[in-house]
Write a structure and sequence with these properties.
The chain is of the alpha/beta class. The protein has 14 helices and nine strands.
Amino acid sequence: MTSPRTRIRILAGAALLGSMSALTVPASATAHSPGSPGSVGSVGSVGERTRGGDVVSVEQAAELTAQEVAGQLQGKIDASQVRYGVTAYRVVYRTTNSSGAATTASQLVVLPRSTARRLTTVSWLHGTTVYRKDVASENPQSNDRLTALLFASTGRAVSAPDYVGLGSGEGFHPYGDPRATVAASVDGLRAARTVAHRKGRELKPKVQVAGFSQGGPATMMVGRALQQKTADRYFGLGALAPVAGPFHLSAFEAAAANDKIVKSSLYLAYFATAWNKTYGLYASPGEVFKSGYAEVVEGLFNGYTESRDIDAALPDYSSDLFTEDFLNKIRKPTGALKEQLRPLDTTCDWRPNAPVEIFHARGDADVFFSHAKYCADQLRGKGVTPRLTDVGDYSHNESVRQAVPRIVEFFDASAKNG
């Protein structure tokens, strides 16, 4: 039997390898031949080969007229761009988890009720979510559902993956893990293509990728995989529009350790518990959490506890929740932890061959505006000049509602110029 220290070292090394490779080749890569959607349907017989993006189930989640879409958006997101009604589907599909093992994930696929047969596709990647039902496929009132409805009402197909371990997918959510993020997102596009095909529609190859908060770095990781054509041989990159992303994750977690951000204890506790499951950060909760919390924190982040209940159970400050030794490790990561963070500190460190606009709010007290500048600087270092748009003096969650209509305009302009 291996010692806890040996186990942590083995898991950390394996996780790093998986994270680095995920930026280029997810486990489900090259599963589909060019020009053909993934296979439809159901759990096969024992030994039957399944592929990333194979559809397990589809059910209609909503059917709305353009007027009804506008009504859903009223008072939340500017509805002036709504042109079509939409039909939304809750889709379960095959993908792989952070270790590359087969699993299932869910997503919301939304198609416009237009006459167009060939559709441009948006991949919408959501932000930090602790309660598995608070995602686009499950929660009609979520920002992600509303965002997907708006994009589709402009005439686009939308793939809004819940990621691994959220929605009705299997297992736990490996928060931020590059390998699982890219696999679930690209396999979600494949599944969306199958659903569209069954409805007599075709998805164009170039994908417009956008995402909020956690979905900001995810946008850049998925965009890179699509551009490199190692994630899928059909889909490619059309445009990138990340919103309020923590592009310098090590700095974000250090700020949480120093209680410099809103909900610092929740963000850092989610990070610690999820990364321990994924990478093996600690041998026992007592190494990380103070007495009185060590026994309960991991159970709070089981995917079935709502964020308000987690808030009520945790102290406001990281200094009251975590041991000083752990906080010091987060403030100045070294060794395996530093290497695990590296892929998430460099999601913008490449050269997109498609337009990029980064959106952020100067009033964001969760993810500081400096993260947008950090991403822009990395892109400039690769010879790319992205647009950097300040959406105003808004909070983190409000910033996405301000950004989405601007993203529609950016995507429209990108398509015309492309």
